[in-house]
Amino acid sequence: MTWFRLAAFLTLLLLPPAAGGFASAQEEEPRETVLSLPEGIDRGEVLAEAARRRAEWKGFDELEYAQMSRLGIRLIRGKHVEFYTDLAESKDVDSIPVVLDEAVSQLALFFGLSPEDYRNWRVEAFLISDREPFEIFGALKRAPDFEHGYALESRVWIHDQKQAYYNRFLLLHELTHAFMNWTFGDLNPRWYSEGIADYLALHRWDGKNLTLGIYPASPDEVPGFGRIDRIKKAGRGKNRKTLDDVLDFEAGDFLDNDSYAWSWSLVTLLFHSPRFGRAIGAMPYLMTRRDANRLFTELLGKDDARLNRDWYEWIASIDYAADFSSFARDDLPPRPLTDPVELTLSPKESGWQSTGIRLEAGKTYVLRAEGRFKVYEKELARALPCEAGGISLRYFAGAPLGQAAAAVPPSGARTVNPWKGAVPLKNGAVRITPDVTGPLFFRFNIPGGAAEKSSGNLVITISRDR
Fold first, then answer.
1. Could you say which of 41, 50, 380, 424 has the lowest number of CB atoms within 10 Å?
2. What is the pLDDT of residue 374?
3. What gap in Å lies between CA 198 and CA 116, rounded to an integer?
4. 102 and 162 assigned to the same domain
5. Which domain holds residue 104?
6. Are residues 43 and 103 in the same domain?
7. Which of 317, 343, 364 delimits the end of a domain?
8. Same structural domain for residues 292 and 338?
9. pLDDT of residue 14
10. pLDDT in tens, 251-310
């Protein structure tokens, strides 16, 4: 699995860390930032504008601490966080201020800022089982009737989720909102603010060390999260979202978890491909701009079409223990077809693999597949023999496990699903007549984490149809 250090996106180098995510780093200094912003956007001016906006915050009334004991509310003070809860004492609950305090330092480093600049930053965090005592206490003044969690100025609230992990996740999500609003002055566009809050809130905590921004290997690692399962269900059918659908999300779209799932999926893809580093790295400094999405697209430049292509591949194959290596791979240079051409493909290579062989629109070609290979099946914990048509008794992403497919995707930006016309292969001859002129791609239908444990080769002969 390819991982990219979270803090490094501001340097636009995206170097791989040792074990994924961004671990406790209290002694680290922020990297020297080489941030490439759109013309007319100045980093210092953005931070100064955020400070002006903070000065206009309404603030909150002082809480009546004398009421707490009578109302059954406990207070635990941390370095950055005053944590209030009506939950009984426990190791999981009482460690939350430590988690949030450490997260503040990591958030500063992630965004290329100095933790020292946040030494006096304070947040009030509320973990609520019963709303009524907190309403009497005055802690919910100015808070809307939220379902799960909410952040406003220097306060964050969540309702008890009955799961220690998911309580921490939601508090880290809302803490990220509070940090970004304080630092950058707004939380727009929504796909970015919600996606990055989810992205960073996925964490590991062993009671001593905190790691933000993990990618889960299994649902057991992130109980209550559920975003991956939502995309797996919707991303392969008529309810899947286009890239433009996600970019156009507004605040009112986040009344259920689907929009959170799509936003997290996009942010995750952007951070796991080095070609999108400049665009995603600039996003915090565009949050006060109404044309943030336009500027984001301009920063993508010629990679806009590649993002659209990668997006459809990502949501069609998303799974736990994802393999992001295909999104970092460059396409092969285009070359004309010399008749015939024989290629050897490996199931160890995940995602769509460019051959570089240029096929012409409207012309028919013969693809002849031969050979057997092995595909790792994680439920059985062993590799299964397979031919080009896949294993019909085992399915992944709506098709037989291991099935090979070929496609010539259109190269235009924001097209419809560029893989829609993919042709499934079988041992023997299959014909393909592309609608567009471009390079031929192949892909094995193998879930993330299984490709590296697969083996063998498939031999493909490509020729013009006589």
1. 380
2. 94
3. 25
4. yes
5. 6-317
6. yes
7. 317
8. no
9. 35
10. 999 988 899 999 999 999 999 998 899 999 999 999 999 999 999 999 999 899 999 999
Residue 110: CB atoms within 10 Å: 26
Same structural domain for residues 346 and 300?
no
Q: How far apart are CA 146 and CA 140, in angstroms?
A: 11
Q: Which of 206, 217, 101, 130 is nearest to 164 (CA)?
A: 206
Residue 209 has pLDDT above 50, yes or no: yes
Q: Which two tokens stand for residue 365?
A: 């070609």
Q: What is the tally of structural domains in the chain?
A: 2
Average pLDDT, whole number, for the chain? 89
Query: Is residue 7 a contact partner of residue 16, using CB atoms and an 8 Å limit?
Result: no
- CA–CA separation, 46 and 49 (whole Å): 5
Return d(Cα 11, Cα 31) in angstroms, integer.
7
Task: Provide the residue type at 82 as one letter.
Answer: E
Statement: residue 24 has pLDDT above 70: no
408 forms beta bridges with: none
Q: Do residue 229 and residue 105 come from a single domain?
A: yes
pLDDT of residue 19: 34
Say if residue 152's pLDDT is above 50: yes
Instruction: Tell me the per-residue pLDDT of 372-396, one tens digit each, with 9 for 90 and over.
Output: 999 998 888 899 999 999 998 888 8
Closest CA to 397 of 228, 257, 214, 198: 228
Alpha-carbon distance of 345 to 444, in angstroms, equals: 9
Q: Which of 284, 317, 350 is the last residue of a domain?
A: 317
Q: What is the DSSP letter of 63?
A: P
DSSP 449-464: TTGGG-EE-EEEEEEE
Q: What is the pLDDT of residue 283?
A: 96
CB 407 within 8 A of CB 359: no
Q: Domain containing 201 — which CATH number?
A: 1.10.390
Whether residue 55 is contained in a domain is answered as yes
The alpha-carbon radius of gyration of the chain (Å, integer) is 25
Q: Note the pLDDT of residue 2.
A: 31
